[in-house]
């Protein structure tokens, strides 16, 4: 079984690779700021840099505390359930978003997590899920003019 030191180094490496992929992909676009605002690669480039720097900091911190972290088990029974309770909905979000679009996936994810993990009433979960999804749509699609992954529902509603 992995100890916490190994897990933190693995996580840092994964985040670094994700940041590097985002940074590399943004280089096909203009990464600067123009008279009319940020160019298409502006935010992806900076997010990639932030992820890479943060992952290096996590790796350095894990390396400095390696003696203590090697003694910490990754998860016991309840801890493993908490980790899976967080990870499985995120994996479901990614899978659902591929077929139904990011906005439907986001709304379903928030609804499920708030209702079942947060144990909030249906009206609260539904309100937050729809509110955050609509706000995200307005920010990216209308204000920044950055289209995100659409699914059949958005296309049917004329949003895609």
UniProtKB/TrEMBL annotation:
<feature type="transmembrane region" description="Helical">
    <location>
        <begin position="83"/>
        <end position="110"/>
    </location>
</feature>
<feature type="transmembrane region" description="Helical">
    <location>
        <begin position="122"/>
        <end position="140"/>
    </location>
</feature>
<dbReference type="InterPro" id="IPR009936">
    <property type="entry name" value="DUF1468"/>
</dbReference>
<protein>
    <submittedName>
        <fullName>Tripartite tricarboxylate transporter TctB family protein</fullName>
    </submittedName>
</protein>
<feature type="domain" description="DUF1468">
    <location>
        <begin position="10"/>
        <end position="148"/>
    </location>
</feature>
<dbReference type="Pfam" id="PF07331">
    <property type="entry name" value="TctB"/>
</dbReference>
<keyword id="KW-0812">Transmembrane</keyword>
<feature type="transmembrane region" description="Helical">
    <location>
        <begin position="7"/>
        <end position="25"/>
    </location>
</feature>
<feature type="transmembrane region" description="Helical">
    <location>
        <begin position="45"/>
        <end position="63"/>
    </location>
</feature>
<keyword id="KW-0472">Membrane</keyword>
<keyword id="KW-1133">Transmembrane helix</keyword>
